[in-house]
Amino acid sequence: MERRLHMKQSGHKIYIVCEGDEEYDYLSRLKELQVWSKQYSVKLKNAGSIDNIAAIYQDAYMNDNYEAVFIFCDTELAPYAQYNKLKQTLINLFGTSAAATAVVFFCNPCTMQIILSHFKRVRLKSNQKSINGSLIEKLTSVKNYRATERQRTAIVKKITAENYVLLKDNIKELSLNDEEVPSTNFLQLLSYLERNDVGWINELSTLLEGED
Question: I need a labelling partner for 134 at 20 to 30 A (CA). Which of 68, 122, 178, 195 fits?
């Protein structure tokens, strides 16, 4: 799959397809906090559903405006049908199983695991809002969480550059195996976006394109 990359004066352009509102609002807040390197111009896209991600990803990847295109999503709970379907689509697209590992940044069981880790080291076992509600209220003061716009806004406003550091410490020992609960490889995405050295972009492109 060949594409032409054009370096832009405004920085290296990165595109992240977010599964839904929680993922989009959360990454938007991190952008606002400017905790990533100024080397990158990050564009976020709210897919609205995990089922919409593959088509959006492929379109963005083939658009030569972006030097790297990533996905940020939940695995949900076993048997991971939609999540595994997404990974298989990427494997078929690139012809390598390494593609899904390289471009999909996941959280099992849900993105709230990452969000709450800004405030405390937590280990969610469920993606159900009714089960996680008491912990969400304890750490964010948001009651009866149902992911409404007002509730999401209230929570992300509590995310700061200071507790961003705490987040990274709190999730660093989580499993990288996407079938374990909890698990996430989100730190790798943060590592990319924090680097002033942009050599990883070419390394990623080489992996996906299958170049020698």
Answer: 178
DSSP assignment of 85-129: HHHHHHHHHHT-THHHHHHEEEEES-THHHHHTTTS--------H
DSSP letter for each residue of 145-182: ----HHHHHHHHTT--HHHHHHHHHHHTTSBS-TTSSS
Helix (H, G, I), strand (E, B) or coil at 47: coil
Give the largest CA-CA distance in the chain: 53
CA distance linking residue 201 with residue 206, whole number of Å: 9
Q: DSSP class of residue 25?
A: H
Specify whether the CB–CB gap between 123 and 135 falls below 8 A.
Answer: no
Between CA 25 and CA 156 the distance in angstroms is 7
Residue 5 has pLDDT above 80, yes or no: no
- Residue 170 near residue 123 (C-beta atoms within 8 A): no
Q: Token digits for 191?
A: 């590592």
pLDDT band (50, 70, 90) for residue 27: very high
> Locate tokens 């606002």: which residue?
32
Of 19-28, 36-45, 91-100, the poorest mean pLDDT is in 91-100
* Residue 12, C-beta contacts closer than 8 angstroms, at least 6 positions apart: 39, 40, 41, 67, 68, 198, 201
Phi, psi of 29 (to 5 degrees): -65, -40
Which SS3 state, helix, strand or coil, does residue 175 take? strand
